[in-house]
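New to this. Please check this protein:
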Amino acid sequence: MTPHLPSSSAPVGIFDSGVGGLSVLRHIRAQLPHEHLMYFADSAFAPYGAKTEQVLAERVLAIGGFLVERGAKAIVVACNTATIAAIAVLRERYPSMPIVGVEPGLKPAAAASRSRTVGVLATEVTLSGKKFLLLRDQISEATGARFLLQACHGLVDQIELGELDSSATTALLRTYVEPLLAEGADTLVLGCTHYPLVRASIERVIAAATDTPVTLIDTGDAVARQLTRLLAANASLRAASTIPARLDGYTSASATALSAAFASLLGIDPPTHEAVSGPDGRMLIRQNN
């Protein structure tokens, strides 16, 4: 395969099963304001947590190819589930390209916890992944931390619907968070990029359940720092320019929903739409900001 030769003016491709990766995109835009970015929301295929690793690997390769065809110089897998299940095959396909994944922040959580008890909120696929379980065991042995794993069935669906603070979402969060607090967790890992989008609701649930301070761990900032390091090592950081950084959005589902997410979560006016062909033959929507 011909090696990927990045250009500093090429965009960074970012994708997630839906709008959750916008929590990572927000950090990337803050740390790398001059970079052109492409975001792919695979909402028609969500939730990833209900898919097998084989299915996810095929999907991740398809989306990776879609982004590479559009000139991506680097790819950020802004999804914990996809990272656990399929980032290895993506790196094998594009060995010379900087590829950054998202993993639950177990190490910083162990360091932050005073009770040595950490709750991990994530999807079933993430929590059952061999790579994740090995990491958990290694950090537990090294630090003495106890990790309580909680699969949050249905939470991604609520967030994709835009129900960030609805009574139904709050009820789900209480079901998942309160038992962890009852077992002594003083630190919670937001182990899915969707979950920082309901951080305010999680904080309200915590405040109603306990007076003990609880630390929330979100790894989006660490992902942006790692992307910066890899681009710098490749000499492919885009310099400041009179041409403003571009942000293009793509979705396998509703352009209206993605526009609303860009507006509400990033403070960006809904972009214009241009139809393009997607990785699986579905019609996608290119959104030009």
Remarks:
- The radius of gyration is 19 Å.
